[in-house]
Structures are given as structure tokens and as C-alpha cells.
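Feature request disguised as a bug report, sorry. It would help if multi-protein outputs had a clear separator. Right now it looks like this:
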Amino acid sequence: MEELYRRHRSAVLSYARTCCRDPHTAEDLVSEAFARTLQAVRSGGGPEAAWRPYLLTVVRRVAAEWAGTARRTELSADFEHWLGNLPDSPEAESSEERILRLEEDSLVIRAFRSLPERWQAVLWHTAVEEEPASKVGDLLGMGASGVGSLASRAREGLREAYLAVHVESALVSEECRRYSSLLGAAVRRSGRRPNKDLERHLAQCPHCAHALSELTDLNERLGSALPTCVLLWGSSAYVAARMAEAGASAAGAAMAPGTLGGVSPNGGTGWWPPAADSPLRSGALAGGVVTTLAVALLILPMPFDDDGTESSPSQAAPAVTDVEHPPPVTITATPSQQTPSGQAVPAVHASGTASGKPAKPSPTGVDLGTVTWSGTLRNRGITTKCVEPAGTAIVQNTCDGSKDQVWQTVWSKNSKDYIWLRNAATGECIDYGAATYHSAAIDKDVIEVGMCPCRTEGEGQRFSFALWWVENDGSYLVRAPRGDGKPWQEMVLGMLDWREGADPPPETNAPLVLTYNYYNSTRLRYFVEGR
């Protein structure tokens, strides 16, 4: 147990902080999680190899249990809000019972737990924690050379296990079972011409359509999809904290502890600045460091393009005040005018029926590809607001049917499945390629977005649309591409004022940014309306 505590305490504490109001409570939660795990092992249960995901699950369950006791006052307000918004059942349930039901209803959780524990462990530590093969090999008692092949077998095993639990689900019909093998083939052979019979079935069966979406996420974005499904709560904050911790360790030889290139975020006392009444106090946000590379980028006074040249600042978007968490901060959109092409990464097609018409060139004469959809982006949380440009900024204003609020998704075979979001009135695209990253200063992790001439290589301008299936409300997350070394990976387009129940945003020009999908806020999703 001493060795297990040494190996896993830091990670478990990072997750416990997302559930608690203060560090002392988080420490109590960690101790309780280890104690219960030890008790489970002594009773003949508990994990044998996959300790990390097991311990994190125990943390969430214990926190949910505390929500029904006097200790609920020690839990973070965000965690309580998440618990309170879990789907209800016909029968009265405690928070703990609702959590267990949610776990049982998740096909990904059931598939993951059905795997051999060594497979669970190698998937978690390689894909989620992104630990080197030598370290993962030490955890599993094997050589570093064998970690890659084990991880590959585990990934294939997870796909097969998911299809198995999907077929066993009471929600699927005999017709669904006949198409289950085609789902696996569609994921493995992405990019090839789809099976017409399967397409017809998916159009009529939401369960199989959801299964294909989850399988695609597991196949292409395992590092973000797996913690989201297994942890249920706080996955983005946990992963960001772990990456920041890894970056801090790697940068330790070059920087003094608690500083960012000589700039101390909290007076030199550590990496995480605990602002008053901030989610940072409970670890709900990682600090300003995402990767070691990002450390150097975040402290620059001006954004730089990928070729190392300094980019010119453009007009500032309106200043925004977070009423709950001052001080006000001005978000300045400074998109890059030219960014070299990066590596192509997989994504999901935008919603809508492809028109097959070539896209009209932007004012710069750029021919991007094919228009696949044209319509409005209406906010799910504030349904009267639609996305539109305001000079160089991207904002939300009252939906009025104007051309300014009409967007086009443009697809090109050279960009695989990612699309540009181009405004029908200005002909420019939403851009985030060289914008400034903001973190604890405004109590959120955000990256600026702005309007910019469209670029054919699309780096810093492409998005994907992910259907939000939890409430089945027809809304979408608008995601930036994932990729190694990208400070915006796993972020979505959404309102700067994303907090549910917060004071309403300004009547005009409520700004949009890239940020993490915090607590599944409805203000970070959109209805995609058009054709």
C-alpha cells in the first residue's frame, strides 16, 4: 500500500480537488479513497493492476456519498451542481445511487471494466496520462518495448468489448444486432465509402448512431474520450492538471519552482493560484501550464506565428466583466494571418446535408472546398442568442435572421473531416491559430477567437461538430482539433460567461472563446439550424 500510495497519490489528489472546496477536504477524500480500496482488496475484491482508474472512481463515489451527509458543505459548489443535474429516475434515489446508475448505463464504462486489468491499466496510463513506455512498463512489470504492442491489443479489445455491450443492451433490436459488425468496420475503415444499408439504419436508429459516435471517439480520441466516460465528472480538469504537473516536472530543471519563466503566478508559493471563491481552490481548473512547450508560449507578451515571426494585434473585442469572479478582463482577438499547415488529424463531419456546391471564395480569393451546410448557430443555454462577427471578434447577439448570423461549413478532402466555419456576410473564417491563452487571471482557461481571412491549409481555423447525446436535445459541441502540442486541444467554441445560473451576459456583443467543456454547461453548446 505504501508503494501504491507513492505511485498514485498525486493523481488521486488532483482529482479530489475538483470535488472539494479546500485542500484539507481533498486530502481527507484521498485518504478515504485509499482506505476503502485497501478494505476492498482485503475482502477479496478491488483492483489487481488498474489501480489508477479504480481509485479515481472511488473518489467520485465517496464525494457523492458525502453529498448526502453533513460533509456536503465541504464539497465544491460545481460538484454539487453537477450532482443535482444528473438525470432523474422514476424512483427516489440518493446521489450515490444516481452515480451508480449512471455508471451502469454507460456502455464505455461497462466495456472498459470488462477488459483484463492489464489492458485497462495500459490504456489509462498511455492514452490518458500520456506516460512514457518505460514508466508504464515499471507499473506493469514488463519491458518498455512490450508496452506499445500491449496498448495496441488493448485498444482493439476495447472496441470489441464496446460492440459486445452495445449488442447486449436492452435498447437495441434484432436489426441493430445485425448491423453491429458493420459499426466496427466503419470505425476501422474511416474515410472509405460508407455502407448504404448501414447509413440508412443509422438515420433511423439513434442508439446505433450514438454507438458509432462513441466508437469513433474511442478510436480517434481515446485520450479525451476515455476519461470523459469513465470519470463522468471533472475529466477535462483532471487531464489538464495531470498534463500541467508533467510539464512542471519537466520544466523544473530550467525554472525555479512556482514560476513561469520568472513570473510567479501566486507570489512564488506554487503553481496553482487559489483565487478567492475560484474553482481553482478545489482544483476544478488546471493552472496556466498545459504542456512544457506551452509554458514558454504563455509568457510571451505577443502571440507568435508558427514561423517565429511576431503577429500584429487586431482590434480588441468588448471588455467583459465576470460578475461572480472579478476583476474584468479584456479579451483581445489576435488571429494569425498566415499559419503554416500542420498535421491533419481526424474529426467528425458537421451536421447537415451536403449541398455539393463549391464554396464561394473569401474576399482574399481562397477556394476552400465544398459547402456542406449553411445556417445559424443558436446558443443552447440562451436560446435567443446567435453567433455573429463583430469586427475581428466573435460574439453572440439576439437572433435576427440577418446574413451576419449565417455560417457555412466548408469541407475539403485535403483537410480530411474537419471543416472551416465561414461567415456568409464577410466571407472570413473563425480563427484561433495564434491567439492569446488566458488562464487563472479570469478564473477560466480560454483561448481567443477572431475573424480572419480563410486559409487553405486551415491550421487554427478548422472545427468538428459533436452531437450532445446526454439529454438528446439536438445540440452540438463545436470542437477545435486535438493534436499534440496544441494549446487548444479538447477545447470547444462557447461563451466566455458559460456559468449556469450566472448573471445574464451583456445584451449586445457577448464574446465567444475556446474553452474546456466545463461541467457540460449549456452555454457551451449550439443548435445547428439550417440546411
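(second protein starts here, but nothing in the output says so)
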Amino acid sequence: MPSTDDKRLPPHVQVLIAGGGPVGLAAAVELGRRGVDCLVVEPRVTVSRARPRCKTLNVRTMEHLRRWGLAERLRQRAPLPASWAQDVVFCTSLTGRELSRFTGVLGLVPDGSRFAEIGQQAPQYVLEEVLREAVEETSPGRLVLGSQVVGVSHGDDLVTVTVEHGAGRLTTVTADYVVGCDGPRSVVRDEIGARYVGEQALRPNFGMVFESPGLWEHVAHGPAVQYWVINATAPALVGPLDRTDTWWAIGFGVDRETGENDAQQIIDGVAGRPIEAKVLSTDPWTARMQIVDRMRHGRIFLAGDAAHLNPPFGGHGLNTGIGDAVDLGWKLAAVLEGWGGPDILDSYESERRPVQERVIREATANMRVLSTELLADNLEADDEAGAQARQAAGRRIQETKKAEFHSLDLVLGLRTAASPIVPAEPEGQHGTTWAGARLPHLFLEGGQSLYDLLGTDMTLLALAPDVLVAAVEEAARLRGVPLTVARLSGPVAVEYAKLLGARLALVRPDQVVAWLGDEAPQDALALVDILIGDAQRSEKAFRSP
């Protein structure tokens, strides 16, 4: 079981992670499965079920969970199976008029071979519980609860971390690297002098979780993962946490005082009728669109909410943080294992910042039209004016909200445009290159995922029987890079090579394409040096064959 005292605090650890929320735990899993001695310091002794907050795990996060062997475990714990509902409904209330709906949302349905795992609706606490277990199961991972990082001091070769336990007891731990995953009030961020840059919304919002036995009996619109309620009494967003009695809701434009005083009135307005309900928790918040001015100071890094904040609309925040953890995790492991060069850690911010900035832009755009902006007269009327008002509302909903619920191009299409560890490539036959992008997914014969053929570290994917790989294998061996060679054959390999525009692909641990070519390069060692962040080691720059 995780420790709640300082007995598991070693004098030194390779990587210390401040904060054991989903991002910190994900970083620990990514590091731990590579044998890195990792320590997570987390103030909360137990995972909070009172404020589930994030509830959408997108297909990319689920693909990472698959890599870690945790996807099925999480699905079994999720209160709402993906098959239960894939709709978002806009309505005047849960018992009132339906205005519009989106189906097949948030990657919750298969799309051919486009991704290895569909998305999953799951409260944040389910993910945290699964990841806590995984950290404890992964030697040498350690999770120390009831403690928090209160100080960080950077030295030339080590970071000195001060950890506080309960009643003010302090312990000092040194680490090769520190990752600050300690949220918006990050001590690590403050200690390195980084600061948020950006804006904060003016309108307050009031989140709550409530229990309402029998409410499902009155819902007029069938199962859905979200219901956007559009009425003057309670413009809100509401959804189920389970298939029985527990619900979450966000009242738009409601401040803390109003929400605390009028919680039952908001719930009744959402339901469209007086209902029995018990408020289990409240969570007033205001959207922030901010990113830190820098994510690294020497051996100290920031990830997740400690580095960037965005409005929750579209469900990108937690998932972006998981992407941070994966990116930084394998790169730290590469350095600690001895094959990562000096540029590989510099690539963390250069690769992640454009992703984070785009997510902030997209989420901010989603926030421009909420239930408050969709209010209109006559939405409940039984006459012709009512029918016309509902038709107009439906058209506006479809025009303004589609991108929020059908965002796979954002989730899967993010590409590392400029990175010191991705060689510049000429455009392929489709007018672009896959280098720097997620490897296109493919289901093979028998339903096996192409991703399951990839190694834990670097993978050389060969798509023709006559393509030679020995030069790349030898270069990897000379640089100490763990390399898996995976081959596809037959018609599927031919078609996949056409898609990539190449017969060879080097794939990183995070399933991102690092390099493409029809043949092994003339100077394979120079190529490998770029990919591992040590380009200066080679006497000449890499040139494509």
C-alpha cells in the first residue's frame, strides 16, 4: 500500500514528481515501466470522489493506457460503459423539449482502423485509482501520500527537494530530475520563477455533484453523456456519473454565493420539475486560458495544470496533461538510461508548447457558445412560434458546437512541426509528411493492433521484404539505443507503405513517427544521433538518401 509517512522517502531518487494527480501518476507509470527509480509525492491520502472534474478520456489517452496494459482495467472500473451512450443532447430541461443532438461524440465509437482504442467516459477518480495501483505495481515506483513538496533548489548535478509531512516535519531528498505536476498552485512553478501568461474568463461557473434517486425515470431524451440545458432558470451543463443516482452539473454564470444558496433551484431548473436531490459537493470555478512562460529550468520541468490551463469544453485538459507526461517520461528515461543526448530534453517544450497552445485556442473557441448564449424566446411553446424557435436553436447548435464533440482531427492530428529530434523531411506524395505525427493506426489480420507490434523504446517498421535494416540496427547498437524491428508483409504492407509514402519508418516510444525513408540512410549513425538528441556527435549533418 502507498505510504503516508516519510519511511519511503529515500535520500536520493532519479526522478521526483511533485503531485500525484493523473498527470504525475502517468509520468510515474511511463518512467517506472522503463525501470527508472521514481518517487511521487502527493498531499491527498485518498483519491477524492467528491469532485470528479475531468470525465473524458480521449482515444489518444486510451491508446497510452493500452501501451501500459491498463486500458481494459480502466474500462471495467468506469461506471458508464462506452456502449451505454455516445450522444450529447441539447434540451430545454431533462424533462423538456429536445433542441438538437450530436451522436458518435468524443471518439466513443470505432472508426475503422483510425485508432487502437475508443474513448471512455470515466470520472477522474477512476483514472487516478487505476494509475495509483499501477505505480505501486511497477518497481521501483514509489508513491508517498500525505506529504507535499514545499521547496526546490537547483544545483549543477542534482535537485534538492524539501518534503513536508503532516505536522510540519521536513525531509530533504535529492533527485536527478524533478517534474512539477502540482497543479495551478504549483510550488515547483513558483520555485523556478515561471509564471502563467494569458487570460481569465469574467463569467463564474458553479460546479456540483448531486444525488437524485429516480431522476432517470423522468429524463425524456434517453441516455447521453452530456445534456446541455437551455432555459432562463438554469442554463447549465449536466451529465450522469453512473447509471443510478449520481449526477454532475455546471451552472453557467453562477457565482459561489448564489450557487450555495440556490443549488436546489438550479437542480430543479435542470430537471424541469421539482425533484428530490442531495448535493454531495460543490466546485465554483472560472475558466482560465493560460500557459507558463517557460516549462523548464535546468533539471526541473513542469507538466499538466502546473504548465497550462484551458476551459474544460471539449474535454482536452487532462488528456493534454497525459500527453505531457508521456512525452517527458520517455525522454527522461532515455537520458537516465544513457542513450538520450543533450537535445532530447530541450525537445520537451518545443514539442509540447504548440500542442498546448492549440488546445487552449480550441477550448476557448468552444467556450464562446454555452447554454447562456443559446437562450431564446418560445423554446417551450407548443405553437408555430415555438417550432420555429426550436428549429433556429437547432441550426445554431449544429453550426457552433460540432467541433467540440467531433474533435478527432485535433486529438489525433497534432504534429511536431519543429523539434530538434525530428529530422526535416521533404513533403510526401500526399503533400505532407508523417514525420513528427502519430503513426497512422492499423488493425491487422485477426484484429491485432499495429501498435502492439511496436517496442517499448524505438521501433524500426519495415514494410517490404527486400528493404534492408542492418545499417539502422548497427547504428542503434553503437549508440546504445534499444531498438525493435517490426515487419509487415503482403498486401497490407504495400498499402500501408503507400499511406506513409515510405517503406521504412522509425517510431518513437510515444508512437510518433521520427523518420521515414524508402531505404536505410547512407549515414544511419547521423540519423540516430538526431533522433536521440545528440546531432552534434556526428561529423556531418544527416542527409536523406
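Even a blank line would do. Unrelated, but nice: The chain has 13 helices and 24 strands.
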